[in-house]
Design brief:
This protein is an alpha/beta fold. The chain is built from 24 helices and 14 strands.
């Protein structure tokens, strides 16, 4: 499914902009979390098929893929590059403003809000369409299709008259029209389109981002180009080399880059969109500037939408600083399914009423040795199927494969156990946990110490801790209203300073330096001098989130079990990252040599190797190998062709639908102005 989404995204961008290479790069840069070589080749193949289909339909009537091909007679001079940087800064600020306003509007109208309860999605879409039509009618630049205006804004007045489109009053012969009146009209059109896209994006119809961003940037860039040409004439500089159409193209790239925060793919898309190879460097400069300026205020629109909807998406850990471990954020209050002891009705009621996606399978209530993981949906479907064939609810259920004794007449559910669930130890760094969730695509990992389950980390809980500032230094995006910002945590030792107790201040400083180290000498259970127990906030953590008191006990218990498993001596020293700690919680002056030999680890030898592959993927590979080994030539040929037929079909269907939309829009637009062609495909 992920591969198909990446392929479809590449084909869609290739059709929308006539940019097959840019579509592949956009899918790689913005859409796909994982983009292996196989996905890249198939996405490229789908883009090629989409481009060929688009050429065959020839909806533009020019026989070319380029939508806004523009002629640029001169290369921009070095003196113009600061203006391109200024366009990038303007695009970044407009993009940040759009993200902030649009996310606030989306938050006010999402499901469950008072607005959504009163206004259905269909009524909202109809209202936005009416508002767009009414506000677009007064100006000649917003009345026509956006692509028509963008094409005119991109072109220079020095183009050949036979190749030049309708310039809509932007040119006076071979010279561009200058003056404040045109600047006022273009700025008003940019403002109207910017406000329209602010309320449109995120509604029930997927629209209102790419083309309106290009339109807004093109209007602003054309205005800046007119200003630079006029200003150069006042200074006595050669104004004829300044082309407002070039500034329109750079401005379009800047605003779209400020909204989406894409870089490489956007530069390639703009090149394929305009065929302006000599503007690659201005495009790159404006897009990078827009990204830097926009990132200083908010994240991109896609990232903010993901956070607003609560999707468990993880970015690359380039900006993260992890100083904690898996045991610091794992969930210790778990619900289990035991190997035996439950009835059919109890288990069915449990999987029907729960909101969890699965349960860890352990031996018993006393023995928490991890056996595997049971997925709720699979168990519920299997049990409901058994109910339909007459299984009584008072019958016993067990997992015979993992039980030393079997129960006569019990229902065996051993085939529903996922033994390949990923297991980690409590000391696993969170940087590694982050890579596990991001690169492997799994949703849950179990934390076990010597085969005993001690906790669980889900992808959603990890993202929650990350965004809330509990781990790393990432906080909520300020664009998401009402969710960002934390107060500064109280400094360690502040309470003791107010009370004037020097001994407590020394204890606070020692705890601050020791971090999560167990009890130190002189600190009997955290009660200095036998007085009231001292509770200090944890440094570096956001307020309102303190680790449970049971977590320290849990870590101490794990240390004791670690010592007992490898030594027969009741008191053995164990070196930790913070200090030298013994099993009874006392730090000795000199480390004692462990007595006795290591305990056998054979009881854990039955556990399989950790693997993230699921049964369906393994079965698919087994089926593929069987077909390749014993299948006929036709079966082997079909197995090799089908993975390529799907991207080809996606590309053809995407190009067909895009062509139909474009032809229908042009035909309806011409019909509105009295130009009714006899052949609507002409």
């Amino acid at each position: 499914r992920r591969e198909l989404i990446s392929t479809a995204a590449a084909a869609g961008v290739a059709v929308a902009f006539g940019a097959p290479v840019g579509g592949v790069l956009f899918s790689y840069e913005e859409v796909s979390t994982m983009f292996p070589q196989k996905t890249m080749v198939r996405a490229f193949f789908a883009s090629v098929v989409a481009a060929l289909t688009l050429l065959w339909y020839n909806t533009s009537g020019t026989g070319r893929l380029t939508m806004f091909e523009a002629y640029t007679p001169d290369m921009p001079s070095i003196a113009e590059y600061p203006w391109f940087v200024a366009l990038g800064a303007i695009g970044g600020m407009l993009g940040a403003l759009f993200v902030r306003w649009n996310i606030a509007i989306q938050a006010a109208r999402r499901d469950g809000t008072a607005f959504r309860k009163r206004v259905p999605i269909v009524a909202e879409v109809v209202a936005i369409a009416m508002i767009t039509a009414i506000t677009s009618f007064p100006s000649r630049y917003t009345r026509v299709l956006s692509s028509t205006t963008i094409r005119a804004l991109f072109h220079s007045c020095e183009d050949d008259m036979t190749l030049r489109p309708d310039m809509m009053g932007l040119c006076a012969g071979d010279e561009p029209v200058l003056g404040t009146e045109l600047i006022s009209l273009l700025m008003a059109a940019a403002l109207v389109r910017f406000l329209q896209m602010t309320i449109t994006f995120g509604t029930g119809v997927p629209c209102g981002l790419f083309v309106p961003s290009l339109y807004t940037g093109a209007c602003i860039g054309r205005c800046l180009g007119i200003f630079v040409r006029t200003f150069s004439g006042y200074l006595g500089l050669p104004a004829s080399t300044v082309h407002p159409g070039v500034y329109a193209m750079v401005g379009a790239a800047a605003v779209l880059g400020g909204v989406c925060r894409v870089t490489i793919s956007l530069v390639v898309i703009m090149y394929e969109l305009t065929s302006a190879l000599q503007l690659i460097v201005p495009f790159m400069l404006a897009v990078l500037t827009a990204k830097w300026v926009g990132d200083s205020f908010t994240h991109g629109i896609y990232d903010c939408c993901i956070r607003l909807r609560g999707y468990p998406y993880l970015h690359e850990p380039d900006d993260f600083t992890f100083g904690t471990r898996a045991c610091d954020i794992m969930d210790e209050d778990l619900e289990f399914i035991y190997v035996k002891g439950a009835t059919f009705g109890e288990l069915l009621a449990k999987v029907r009423d729960t909101q969890f996606g699965g349960f860890p399978l352990v031996n018993s209530q006393q023995d928490k040795s991890l056996v595997g993981y049971v997925h709720t949906l699979q168990v519920r479907e299997h049990l409901e199927k058994l109910v339909s064939v007459g299984i009584r609810e008072d019958m016993r259920v067990h997992f015979a494969k993992y039980s030393q004794s079997t129960e006569a007449g019990a229902v065996d559910l051993s085939l529903l156990v996922d033994e390949t669930v990923l297991r980690i130890v409590p000391e696993t760094p969170l940087a590694q946990v982050h890579n596990i969730f991001r690169q492997m695509g799994i949703k849950v990992v179990l934390v076990a110490r010597f085969a005993e389950l001690v906790g669980m980390i889900t992808k959603k809980s990890f993202v929650h801790h990350l965004e809330s500032g509990h781990i790393g230094h990432i906080t909520e995006d300020p664009a998401v209203e009402g969710r960002g910002g934390h107060e500064e945590p109280q400094a360690l030792g502040e309470k003791e300073a107010e009370e004037g107790d020097k001994s407590k201040r020394r204890l606070g400083r020692r705890r601050k330096s020791d971090g999560d180290a167990p009890n130190v000498p002189g600190d009997a259970g955290g009660d200095p001098a036998g007085g009231e127990q001292l509770r200090l906030p944890l440094a570096g953590l956001a307020p309102g989130w303190q680790r449970k008191d049971s977590r320290r006990t849990s870590l101490q218990t794990m240390r004791e079990k670690f010592v007992q498993a490898f030594s027969k001596s009741p008191v053995t020293t164990l070196r930790t990252p913070n200090s030298l700690v013994s099993a009874d919680g006392v730090s000795p002056q000199t480390p004692a040599k462990p007595k006795g030999g290591k305990k056998s680890l054979q009881k854990w030898g039955a556990f399989s190797t950790v693997s993230w592959r699921h049964d369906d993927l393994r079965d698919f590979h087994q089926h593929t190998s069987c077909v390749l080994a014993r299948g006929s030539r036709v079966e082997r040929a079909m197995l090799a062709i089908i993975p390529w037929l799907i991207p080809a079909l996606v590309g053809m269907l995407t190009a067909t639908s895009g062509s139909l939309v474009e032809v229908a829009s042009e035909w309806l637009s011409g019909l509105r102005f009295g130009r009714c062609a006899t052949n609507w495909m002409a």
